[in-house]
Amino acid sequence: MKLLSAIYFAVAAATTAFAADSRYSGDQVVRFNVTSPKDADILKDAIDKGGLGLDVWTHRASAAGKIDVRAIKKLGLPYTVLVPDLQALVDAERDHMGKNSEVLHNSLMSGEPVQLTAATIFNDWQSYETLSAFIAGLPGVTQLPSIGKTYQGRDINAFKFGTGPYAVVFNGGIHAREWISPATTTYVTDQLVKNADLLKKFTFYVIPVLNPDGYAYTRAASGQRYHRKNLEPNAGTSCIGTDINRNFDYMWSKPGASSDQCSDTYYGKAALSTAEASSLSKFIKSIPNTVGYVDLHSYSEMFLFANGYTCTGQVKDYDTLYKGSKLAADAIKATSGEIFKYGGSCATSYKTSGDTVDYMYNAVGVTYSYTLELRPNENAASGTAGFNPPVSEIIPSGQETTAAFLALWNYVYGQLSATPSPSTSPLPPTSISKTSAPTSKTATPATTSAAVCSHTVCVTGGKLVSSCSDCAKAVCAKDSYCCNTSWDSTCVREVSQYCTGVAC
Ligand code: 0X9
Ligand code: ZN
């Protein structure tokens, strides 16, 4: 495991060799089948010395396993060629977009009438604007005020739908080059808004693209198709960006992330220093009764939960989290036949620190927090591998992920409903559906003024309580809130204050 971590971030650091290059001629994607610690050492050594122009696309948790690398030179290790000519793949992708998604995007931006339907958008990789406009037009969906602005000034768009007592947040596009993630996130949204039963159980909040600057950069012909991070410059270097998925405030800057600004896993200048991570953090903390979170990535087909920062031990909720991920993976298998791995993220894949799932689970107290690595997996046919699946994969990915969501959230609802009352009686649906823009609560400082807390909820811990005194007794995770159900900020307290005995 230790060796793998070393391989992982050292290889990622080597990607800077491509930072100023927007052409992919001569690049291949090759797969090293590392079968012994000796081979792993050869690879690690080559990476550490740098200069080989390696860009690691998959990472494995042990010395043995398949590692996909974008390579321009041989290492003297046995490998198979997955993508013989990356330029041809990128050219074909852009050619298709020029005739489809870009036409739609240009019409939308120039105010022409456009038909945004499942049939017209899931046939290509759509722009951030097109995906946002499509979601905004879905029945029952409310577009929320922007949850934050990126370095380049883009709004980070968020949407809400459903009227259920428990909140679930999901996002795509934290990593710019993982295009199937925003597409799948949007497809799932289109399906969930039609599921009346689920919408009575949950209120969903969706952020289709958390890293819209990066996404736009990977789509632009003048940009970098394989850029992963955000677009914030780093002082003293031409290497751009922080890895948003290493920038969260739990175990930030620990092993599993890099201090090297040029690394693809650069953890940033401070915890939550990126607009994207801090906006998501504030947003999720502002939502009452958040019980679930999913961060959609690609690729490798896995359903993962905390912890990422350590490969030993199990989190307190391991059994229920494991069951949820197994049910999700089973649903995927039944839908498409794809086999998703599942389990604790470090133990199942590799070590990460400061990532979403560890933060949501450990620091925010969102119990059912998952990272989903979408298709393809390592068995995908040559030429369809990695970050360039054909557009025909969008709908199957959306279908299997929808099945996973239904299995997971119905299971979670059953778990929450089964917990003994009074701490589990769901909120009356109307109280949450009437809530106003979620940004207001975080802007309001915690207060100790008297307030009427007739029905309170320990927000991020997911525990419902029926009176102020119960709220005071509730054990909530650090950084979670106790507030009343109608989102009255006068009743918001840091739970740490409550737990030290401050009465409402
Ligand atoms: O490394 C990441 O941020 C995620 N993988 S990706 O290839 N999409 O970049 C994985 C995060 C999940 N956590 C762990 N595997 N520990
Ligand atoms: Zn990712």
TrEMBL record:
Listed Low complexity bias regions: 430-440
CDD domains (UniProt xref): M14_CP_A-B_like
Segments traversing the membrane: none
InterPro entries: M14A-like_propep, Peptidase_M14
Keywords from the UniProt entry: Carboxypeptidase, Disulfide bond, Hydrolase, Metal-binding, Metalloprotease, Protease, Signal, Zinc
Domain Peptidase M14: 120-412
Swiss-Prot/TrEMBL GO biological process terms: proteolysis
Signal among keywords: yes
Signal peptide per UniProt: 1-19
Co-factor requirement: Zn(2+)
PANTHER family assigned: PROTEASE FAMILY M14 CARBOXYPEPTIDASE A,B, SLL0236 PROTEIN
Family designation: Belongs to the peptidase M14 family.
Name of this chain's protein: Peptidase M14 domain-containing protein
